[in-house]
């Protein structure tokens, strides 16, 4: 489904600020696989997501989605196949537009946009049905401006917008990080729900190790632009936070500088 | 005075089309587009020249609007493909258009006084209907010294402007229209929803300037001439209309704002006309730009001052009520 071949990306090459954000990343995700990605600040997690989504272009390497090489496709073309939720709850929605208008824009994602009304009676019913699954009462506020929603509500809406067209790939970059613990919990639950329901091929970056262990069927650990640890299946299910820390120490041969990367 | 006000409303309705264009760029796309000063003249000039050369006025007007659309698209391309700052793209296009307009027009002023224009055609068609005498008959109750010579332009232009308003409302709610609005609101988001924001900006600024040029073409035919300098300050007039309209009539929904913008354009004309007529102010037409600037500033600042005042009063009232309560409880203790 998603195939990344030998991708490298260096920022500010040949300057004192040179930063090797990705170094020869090779990975393959099967259809329906849900991988959680952890790693300290600056490990290259967001950069990897951006290379997949097309907001960044790698120096070398290829990105295949469904066996199609998309590395030269601009972001807006790739996003027909890719759903994304950002860390910032403000980033995934248009604040001056209503809930139904936002949903209508997401609905049109994998279609050609035309000169027909974006919100129709039929679509409204469809939106309402999906909103009900969030249990936030948003289905009764279709005409409310999204700017009036709380961060958690906006993030739930973003998640819905990213997923309900069943994209080939779902990218979640710390999408619960800006929320309070109970809201984060809620969004985490919804995430597990929709990913399961649509069997979406998903990459989720998180700094919350417990979340990374609980969710998904595969786990990557990144450091200095490389994937240094990759477990799946039963091995992943039996993993504990202590295992992860030990593993990191074994590979990198040093104590993890404890930042928010560790216990989140 | 009545005739002057009548004329102000009449031209206000035509300028409202330009204001709708400015609304599309400034508000919907959040793109401060200064192409307007040039594209307004492009519309008036090209249409004027075509009419003088015998093109049917309707066709000439449409071509004028199309020319404005193309100019706007070029501004959009400068900004998106050329990655030039939005303000600068507009300014560059504006000054380029100055020369281009002169090239088309051949001379700084094209007179249409002896030509058959859209305006004169409407008037002569209208005259046969006899609606004028009926309407003027109703005005008799006010015992005016003079009545308008024709209602044709006011009514037909109002119909045209409203038709454009409804088309624009509809457009902004289509799938493409929603994406254009989102481009002005949150580009990152709509790009992640597979919209080509560059294309949408180009189309949006194109449409905006198409409306501006259409307005220019009609104003030229209404006034009987196209002049190379008739667009100077047009962007500020457009902005004034948008801001005054929003401040007076609100901006809750798209349908509401577009109507507000039309209202703003008419009110702007009326205010200017009245200001010029009040003798003891001795305002000259060269002072109009200053008046426009002051109007815009007032429309921007007043709502904020009023809101702050309201908030302050509310807080004071609450505080006073609390004090009252305290006193009472002390007294009873
Ligand atoms: N546009 C950019 N220009 C220059 N350097 C960049 C840019 N984007 C990222 N970097 C650098 O590349 C490295 C990887 O950044 P990235 O954002 O991928 O890290 P991350 O793993 O997502 O970290 P975090 O957990 O803090 O979000 C960092 O050192 C960062 O400073
Ligand atoms: Mg990051």
From TrEMBL, chain A:
Domain (ABC transporter): residue spans on this chain: 2-249
Protein name: Putative ABC transport system ATP-binding protein
Subcellular localization(s) per the UniProt record: Cell membrane
Domain of life, source organism: Bacteria
Signal peptide bounds: none
GO cellular component: plasma membrane
Swiss-Prot/TrEMBL keywords: ATP-binding, Cell membrane, Membrane, Nucleotide-binding, Transport
Annotated InterPro entries: AAA+_ATPase (IPR003593), ABC_transporter-like_ATP-bd (IPR003439), ABC_transporter-like_CS (IPR017871), ABC_transporter_ATP-bind (IPR050166), P-loop_NTPase (IPR027417)
Any one GO MF annotation of this record: ATP binding
The keyword ATP-binding is assigned to this record: yes
Pfam (any one): ABC_tran
Membrane topology (UniProt): Peripheral membrane protein
UniProt-listed SMART domains: AAA
UniProtKB/TrEMBL annotation, chain B:
Keyword set includes Membrane: yes
Location(s) in or outside the cell: Cell membrane
Transmembrane segments: 12-29, 58-78, 85-104, 151-172, 193-219, 225-245, 257-276, 288-306
Pfam families, A to Z: BPD_transp_2
Membrane topology summary: Multi-pass membrane protein
Keyword hit for DNA repair: no
Record-level Gene Ontology MF annotations: transmembrane transporter activity
GO CC, any one term: plasma membrane
Keywords, sorted A to Z: Cell membrane, Membrane, Transmembrane, Transmembrane helix
Chief location bin: membrane
PANTHER family assigned: ABC TRANSPORTER PERMEASE PROTEIN YPHD-RELATED-RELATED, BRANCHED-CHAIN AMINO ACID TRANSPORT SYSTEM, PERMEASE PROTEIN
Protein name as catalogued: Putative ABC transport system permease protein
């Amino acid at each position: 489904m998603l195939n990344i071949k030998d991708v490298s990306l260096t920022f500010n090459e040949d300057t004192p600020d040179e930063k090797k954000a990705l170094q020869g990343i090779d990975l393959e995700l099967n259809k329906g696989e849900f991988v959680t990605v952890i790693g300290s600040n600056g490990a290259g997690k967001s950069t990897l997501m951006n290379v997949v989504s097309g907001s960044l272009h790698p120096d070398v390497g290829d990105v295949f989605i469904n066996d199609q090489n998309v590395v030269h496709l601009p972001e807006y073309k790739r996003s027909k196949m890719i759903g994304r939720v950002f860390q910032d709850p403000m980033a995934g929605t248009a604040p001056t537009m209503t809930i139904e208008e936002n949903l209508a824009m997401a609905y049109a994602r994998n279609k050609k946009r035309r000169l027909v009304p974006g919100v129709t009676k039929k679509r409204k019913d469809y939106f309402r049905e999906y909103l009900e699954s969030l249990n936030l009462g948003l289905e009764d506020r279709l005409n409310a401006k999204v700017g009036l929603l709380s961060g958690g509500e906006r993030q739930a809406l973003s998640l819905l917008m990213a997923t309900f067209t069943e994209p080939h790939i779902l990218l979640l970059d710390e999408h619960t990080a800006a929320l309070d613990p109970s809201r984060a919990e809620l969004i985490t639950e919804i995430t597990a729900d929709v990913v399961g329901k649509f069997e979406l091929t998903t990459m989720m970056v998180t700094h919350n190790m417990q979340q990374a262990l609980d969710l998904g069927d595969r786990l990557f650990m990144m450091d200095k632009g490389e994937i240094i640890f990759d477990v799946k299946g039963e091995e992943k299910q039996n993993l504990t936070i202590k295992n992860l820390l030990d593993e990191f120490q074994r590979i990198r041969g040093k104590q993890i500088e404890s930042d928010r990367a560790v216990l989140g | 005075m009545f005739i002057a006000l009548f004329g102000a409303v009449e031209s206000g309705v035509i300028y409202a089309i330009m204001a709708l264009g400015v609304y599309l760029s400034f508000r919907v796309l959040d793109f401060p587009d200064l192409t307007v000063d040039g594209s307004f003249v492009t519309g008036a000039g090209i249409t004027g020249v075509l009419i003088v050369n015998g093109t049917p006025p309707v066709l000439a007007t449409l071509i004028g609007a199309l020319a404005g659309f193309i100019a706007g698209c070029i501004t959009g391309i400068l900004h998106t493909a050329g990655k030039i700052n939005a303000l600068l793209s507009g300014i560059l296009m504006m000054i380029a258009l100055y020369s281009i307009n002169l090239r088309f027009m051949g001379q700084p002023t094209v007179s249409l006084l002896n030509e058959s224009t859209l305006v004169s055609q409407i008037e002569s068609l209208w005259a046969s209907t006899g609606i004028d005498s009926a309407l003027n008959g109703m005005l008799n109750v006010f015992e005016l010294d003079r009545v308008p010579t024709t209602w044709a332009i006011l009514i037909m232009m109002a119909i045209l402007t409203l038709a454009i308003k409804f088309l624009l409302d509809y457009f902004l709610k289509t799938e493409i229209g929603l994406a254009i609005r989102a481009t002005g609101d949150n580009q990152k988001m709509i790009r992640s929803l597979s919209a080509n924001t560059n294309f949408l900006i180009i189309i949006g600024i194109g449409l905006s300037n198409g409306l501006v040029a259409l307005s220019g073409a009609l104003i030229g035919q209404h006034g009987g001439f196209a002049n190379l300098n008739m667009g100077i300050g047009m962007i500020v007039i457009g902005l004034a209309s948008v801001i005054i309209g929003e401040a007076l009539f609100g901006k809750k929904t798209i349908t509401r704002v577009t109507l507000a913008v039309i209202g703003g354009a008419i009110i702007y004309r009326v205010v200017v006309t009245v200001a010029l007529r009040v003798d003891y102010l001795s305002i000259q037409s060269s002072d109009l730009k200053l008046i426009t600037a002051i109007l815009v500033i007032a429309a921007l600042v007043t709502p904020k001052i009023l809101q702050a005042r309201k908030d302050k009063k509310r807080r004071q009232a609450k505080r006073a009520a609390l004090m009252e309560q305290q006193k009472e409880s002390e007294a009873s203790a």
